[in-house]
Each structure stands twice: as C-alpha cells, then as structure tokens.
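Batch queue: ligand-bound targets. Current item pairs a single chain with pyridoxal-5'-phosphate. No template structures supplied; prediction is de novo from sequence plus SMILES. Inputs echoed for audit trail.
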Amino acid sequence: MKKIYFTPGPSQLFYTVEEHLKQALKLQVPSISHRSQQFKDIYSHTAKELRAVLKLPDGYTVLFTNSATEIWERTVQSCIEKKSFHLVNGAFSEKFYQTAKLLGKEAMKAVGSEGNAVNMDDLDIPDDVELIGLAHNETSTGISQPLSDIYELREKYPNPLIAVDVVSSAPYIDLDFNKVDIVYFSVQKCFGLPAGLGVWLVNERAIDKAKKIESKGLNQAKYRQLTHMVEEASRYQTTSTPNVLDIYLLGKVAEDMNVKGLDMIRRETNYKAAVLYHCINEHPYLEVFIKNTAYQSKTTIVAKTKDSSQKIIEKLSELGLVIGSGYGKHKDEHIRIANFPTHSKEQIELLVDQLNKH
Ligand SMILES: *Cc1c(COP(=O)(O)O)cnc(C)c1O
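Prediction returned. Tokens below.
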C-alpha cells in the first residue's frame, strides 16, 4: 500500500518530485562534476528560483550545506566571537543554544512558558550580544514565534545579527528578509525533498561579521568557512562536493511553487490548518497543545492525546496515513501532523475523516 506521510520531516515528497527525479536520472545529474558548467547552471537556476519563492533581496547569498544542524555550527563558528542570545520554544531552538555553548560561546537564552512562545516583554538582551537566534516554527512543539516579534527584535536591538530558523515554515512564511540577517532551512520539511541538503541564506552584515572574526584569527570553521563559501558561491561553486541531485530537485520544486504562486500555497496552508485545528478541538480524545492562537503553527499541528499516542498512530498507519509522534519527552503524549505545501486539501480531509473515527 502506498502511504501518505504527514510526518513533520522527512515527509511526503512534493508531488512533482517523482517526475523531476526521473528526469534527473535521464540527464545523469548525480554523475556530473561539481566543477562543470552544467553544475554552475543548476546552482544558478536553483538560486534564482529560491530568490523568487522567498522574495530574497539582492544582498543575500544562497549557500548549501548538508543540514540545518550543520548551519547552527557554521553560524556559531563564523559569526559569533563571544556572545549569543537564543529564544527557545522547544528542542530545535534549544539545540542551537547548546551548539553555541559547546563551541565555547557565552550563550544566553529566554525560554517560553509551557505552550507559549517567548514573551517579547520579558526579553532583556545585553548590548554586547552579537547574534540573536530563534526558530520561527518550533517543529518539536508546534509553537510559532509571530513575525511581528521577529521585526520587533530588530527595532529594539539593531546591532546583533538575527538568525532565523525557517526549517519547517519556508516557503509558507512571508518573511521580510531586510529585517534579519541569516535565514536557513533543510529541504525535507516544507519543500518536500529527500533529506541531505541545508540552505543557508546570509546577508552582507553576516558576511562582514565573519570577515571581522577571521581578521582577528578567531574563526573556528575549517571545513565550510563562511567567507570561503561566499567566495565560491559568487562563481556558483561550492567548497566540497555538494548534494548535486538535491540542489537540482530544489530548483525544480521552487520553480513549480513559483508557477503555482505563493499566495495560493499560503491560502491553502491556512485553510488546511483550520480544518485540522477544528477537528482536534472537537475531538473527544485530542486536545490542541498550543492554546494561544497567536502562537499556533500553521505547518506543524500538535495535539495532546488522552492516553498513549502510539494507539492512534498505529490505527492510522494501518490505513496508510503516517503521522508523527510527539518530540522527545512528549513522544507518547502528543501527535504531530505536518501541513506542508505537498499535502492537498483532499489528503488533509481524508486524514480528518479517519481521525474522527478513532
Ligand atoms: C528538522 C529541524 C531542524 C534540523 O534539521 P536537519 O536537517 O535534521 O539538520 C532544525 N530546526 C527545525 C525547526 C527543524 O524542524
């Protein structure tokens, strides 16, 4: 039986990936040299389509890594000399904070209260903090930090770089990139691609900061140093052999998303999220985990289950509908449902029908 994956990453592939994959094999994309003109054309095409999808301003460079996890490490190594501050709404934003600590930085954090995003009124970020990190969509808890909060950070704290994790919200998120400096995601969530590719978007402020740290001899990165990556990227080149196949597929999927239109993708996402939250609100055995609607994620819907979440997960799995369990300590008491651009209204309605029966 062919299953439908509603897991929050890896998830159901974007519905055009199968055709693009066939075409990629026909073109022998996985065999081409990453130093060839053919690869440069692929990189350039993917960057162009991504710029359009995300409305990325010119000052930004599009870089490729292996994962978002790698980007945490590269960001700390290249852009923080001493101090960072982290808004923590769950396990992923906590991991970025931990990475900074592990690499010897003086990392500070503000943690949202249970079921809430970090309250902006509680923040008091010291003047000498060099970078503020946060996740727009905390995939582990289903908490979304409102865009207005992110913009408020820039107004209140104009000096530090702002690094935003949009792993499970891009391209749904309609972010003004002029108000932040570093934005990143990996492709196995909302873009519906095979895992193994991270996209690191950096502006000139971030690059300048990296240059400053390097000039003092304090840069910690050897493999994939930010300034080196940016230099290579100016010729559509990479510092090591990249995931050429995924870069090719990302360009194709971004192109399809541009044809469909981001307004349409956002409208559909909002509709499907409303259907899912309505179902959970009415359900006898489920409860929406994030009560404050201002913080409810549209792309990762999290519900508390009355008893072990494994029962409902298994029931749905028998029907070919694969949903996620809770993350970390919430494994047995939550279910998580991905509402990504690849999931059609019909698929979400099918899932809701079955949820209602169990
Ligand atoms: C999945 C996820 C990550 C980690 O992505 P990898 O590709 O596994 O490194 C980071 N942040 C968020 C919000 C995620 O959902």
